[in-house]
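Give me structure tokens for this 430-residue protein.
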Amino acid sequence: MLIEFSVSNFLSFKDRNTLDLTATSIKEYEDSNLFSLERYDLLKGAIIYGANSSGKSNFIKAMSTMKRIIFESFEQSSTSELDITPFLLSTETENTPTLFEVVFVIDEVRYRYGFEVSNTRVEAEWLFEATKKLEKPLFLREADGIEVMKAFPEGKALESRTRHNALFLSVVDQFNGETAKKIMHWFSNFNTISGLSHEGYKSITFTMLENPVTSPVLKKFYKELDLGFEDISISQKPFDPKELPADMPEGLIKQLITDLEGAFRMDIKTVHSKYDNNHNKVCEVEFDMRAQESSGTNKLFNISGPVFDVLHDGGILIVDELDASLHPLLTLAVTKLFNSKELNPKNAQLIFATHDTNLLNYGHYRRDQIYFVEKDQYGASEIYSLVEYKEEGKTVRKDRSYEKDYIEGRYGAIPIIGNISNIIPTWQKE
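Here you go.
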């Protein structure tokens, strides 16, 4: 379970910014939107708003970058770069490390893990554990070395095996450290996906539709959304070179034939009813999902795999531009899955960025789940929650119209648009 994620000096984020999923003392939607552990009340997710170029995608990219560095760390060579871009609009930060940190719970134990990295090396790294309220370090890494505590014996004798550009946690995992393995498994369920480039996720959906346990749940979801088809047919077909475009360069065709020899492709069809003039059903017709269904239907199908995968197994799903190509009611249907005790028995958490302001009214989100991202005049992004927002020293009341207030600029994080009516006359004069 995720408690906090923090980042600083990464892309548009200069100072330390934190998304906190600890439930505050407010009383909204307690039965559906939060869950309790032994020592924590946690939220089932967060929704992030902001203008274009405000930094929403950068914050989500920070999460995916942290995971990438962790999983690539051990496999890279000593000359590999970490592909980190700091905040470049300040002389104070352009040559200083980037920080990533997460606070999370595994089996009722709270961990705090983070690191500071430049493009060529790990500058600092730390892991803390708290079984009760008291937090104790398991290892601390600084420029002059790695200190392993008695409570972390699995890390002993591995300090010297850790390259300057590799994470110590990843090294300990490679040597089967028990705690390190648990943490790496937690990160394997810390998933970020794009709501814009979603084609790559349909293989997950395909796999879940092949599984007799998860297939009925997905098909029921599609049916309840009234997407216009009655069923889905899936199959695997061997790669056929004859299906390649005839105008493709000969050299590329030969390369693809070599690379894809023995491969299979997913064949996904939607099943529709065909009727006669008296509206009597006469047969069923299959449509090709990609070619004959809408972009919204294709997106919903593609991301439904990752969505139901995390609902089935537990974990965290982070989505950028969740609402792209989706009707607001479809976006609402996806978000409601996570607030369902029946469909989310393992308390999976959904964090997503969106421009769909309808959710501020109809999404039934708590004020501590609603986040805004805004850039200041110096190009630095800041993320803050609605429950933190103060207006004349007072917090926002729960009976406010959040959507109306947000559109009117009450909470910030919207584009500042000038007088557009002046643009055309000015252009015509020129």
